[in-house]
TrEMBL record:
Pfam families: AA_kinase. Residues 5-287 form the Aspartate/glutamate/uridylate kinase domain. The gene is arcC. GO terms for molecular function: carbamate kinase activity. Keywords: Arginine metabolism, Kinase, Transferase. InterPro entries: AceGlu_kinase-like_sf, Asp/Glu/Uridylate_kinase, Carb_kinase. Signal peptide: none annotated. It comes from Hungatella hathewayi. This is Carbamate kinase.
Length: 315
């Protein structure tokens, strides 16, 4: 039998909904798309984002601190851990059911709580740029900044939000266990929300106040697992140059070199499409034959057949 294609799928936050009931519904659709790929003969590893979810957990934990003076403020690293478990549980539950519904009984599904090491001196710590949580008025934002030492920023005319550091992932701490599970045929969910950010202090891993971009963490995971494909599933079917302009052009296939050229020309928005293209390029350039694909969740199956999405390869 030919070796199965190994695919790391990075699910966007929007593929998961904004509330508990929305997520419950969203994971069913996600599970169908993922099991479609398994039925096509692929070996799949799932990673996912947590932007809206980690914001929600952070707000909930803040409400607890307000309510009970004995409860100290919850570190952001713990909020990321909570979001991994919350999303992992729903995905794991829905994937198991979808596999069984299709008569696939030999693929166990498991979520790996994943710590990801970042550099304590990553310049991102001095420039918090990733907005999380709900939108606030200027007064509320000032109050939060004062009380909790949060950095608050105005977000595109929609109000104020907490911004956190988004350092680059350097090392997936649990990679050995993840690899063992994948090699034994399990369907693994790992690096949720980009992973729980930690810095190394001797033998101790210290939780960091940050949220790692899941696009970068997924790219590292795909490299570490020697995957053939990194598929980043998001809210657009293809990547465009001159996005939103009259001369917008949707891209089918670009080389890593072309992608770099487009990046330098500023075609991809920082914080949304830019990290995806950067993560795709890092993966495509890491070894011959590796390819990345950016497309819609519903198009994943067509995408791996090469009929849609934007494919990024070394040459
Ligand atoms: P996710 O939750 O999947 O990470 P993001 O919102 O972070 O999604 O990124 C996807 C969004 O990037 C798209 O919905 C689109 O609005 C935006 N985007 C910015 N630049 C581009 C571009 N050049 N081509 C396509 N989409 C773009
Ligand atoms: Mg994103």
């Amino acid at each position: 039998m030919a070796k199965k294609k190994r695919i790391v799928i990075a699910l966007g936050g929007n593929a998961l909904g904004n509330t508990l009931p929305e997520q419950m519904t969203a994971v069913k659709i996600t599970a169908r798309a993922i099991v479609d790929l398994i039925e096509e003969g692929c070996e799949v590893v799932v990673a996912h984002g947590n932007g809206p979810q980690v914001g929600m957990v952070n707000n909930a934990m803040l409400a607890l601190t307000h309510e009970d003076p004995l409860q100290p403020n919850t570190p952001l690293s713990v909020c990321v851990a909570m979001s991994q478990a919350y999303i992992g549980y729903d995905l794991q539950n829905a994937l198991r059911e979808e596999l069984l519904n299709r008569g696939i009984k030999d693929i166990p599904v498991a979520t790996m709580i994943t710590q990801v090491r970042v550099d304590a001196d990553d310049p991102a710590f001095n420039n918090p740029a990733k907005p999380i949580g709900r939108f606030l008025t200027k007064e509320q934002a000032d109050d939060m900044a004062e009380k909790y030492d949060y950095v608050m920023k105005e977000d595109a005319g929609r109000g104020y939000r907490r911004v956190v550091a988004s350092p680059r992932p350097q090392e997936i701490i649990e990679i050995g266990t993840i690899r063992t599970m994948v090699e034994s045929g399990d369907l693994v969910i790992a690096c949720g929300g980009g992973g729980i950010p930690v810095t190394r202090q001797g033998n101790h891993l210290k939780g960091a106040s940050a949220v790692i971009d899941k696009d970068f963490a997924s790219s590292l995971l795909a490299r570490e697992l020697d995957a053939d494909f990194l598929i980043i599933l998001t809210a657009v079917e293809k990547v465009a140059i001159n996005y939103g302009k009259p001369n917008e052009k949707w891209l089918d296939h670009i080389t890593a070199e072309e992608a770099k050229q487009y990046m330098s020309e500023g075609h991809f928005a920082p914080g949304s499409m830019l990290p995806k293209v950067q993560a795709a390029v890092e993966f495509a350039e890491s070894a011959p034959g590796r390819q990345a694909l950016i497309t819609l969740l519903e198009k994943a199956k067509d995408g791996i057949k090469g009929t849609t999405g934007t494919r990024i390869s070394q040459a």
